[in-house]
From TrEMBL:
Belongs to the peroxiredoxin family. Prx6 subfamily. Its EC number is 1.11.1.27, 2.3.1.23, 3.1.1.4. InterPro entries: AhpC/TSA, Peroxiredoxin_AhpC-typ, Peroxiredoxin_C, PRX_1cys, Thioredoxin-like_sf, Thioredoxin_domain. It comes from the Eukaryota. One of its GO terms (cellular component) is mitochondrion. This is Peroxiredoxin-6. The keyword Transmembrane helix does not apply. SUPFAM superfamilies: Thioredoxin-like (SSF52833). The keyword Magnesium does not apply. Keywords: Antioxidant, Multifunctional enzyme, Oxidoreductase, Peroxidase, Redox-active center.
Amino acid sequence: MSDINEVCSSISWGVLFSHPRDFTPVCTTELGRAAQLSPDFSRRNVKLIALSVDGLEEHHDWSKDIMAYNNAEPGSEFPFPIVADDRRELVEKLGMLDPEEKDRSGMPLSARCVFVIGPDKKLKLSILYPATTGRNFDEILRVIDSLQLTAHNRVATPVDWRTGDSVMVPPSISEQEAVTLFPAGVYTKHLPSGKKYLRYTPQPNTHQQ
Ligand code: BEZ
């Protein structure tokens, strides 16, 4: 449907994600959710592109089912491209095939891979789910928020972090450097070891130089 280089253009981030098969239940719920959240991905300057080993016609027909599953207005357009890798070139090249999950003719299906690609076209994060476990696309938005923040600021995000929460000062930054880097302040939690490694600072909202 679209060329990957075109989708992940120089200024955008990209999420390339595979699913096992069109017209299957879990995949329908997943692509339905991704379609609902597509404005949230666009707001973050992220282009979505799905992929499976089905053909173009199947993708077109199935995308209508997905929009109906979403109770979208009849005739509304599916919001992102789905790669038709029916010759299995990309799934093989990108290691997306799940050897445990086969179709009725015994051919392996693609797993539920998620590749987040930065504007420099480099892989920033990959997550792999088996066919039997549907993904959580809110989590994918959450990790993109962390990836985009940490691409421009020397901070790290803690467990379950969400935009607006405090962030952590990485161990590579000295106490002295932290004072200049984080003018909003650094809070260090006292720990039994006496080591000062649990350091928090408010989320920066500007790019550090
Ligand atoms: C599904 O999308 O429902 C599915 C696809 C392949 C294996 C198991 C479940």
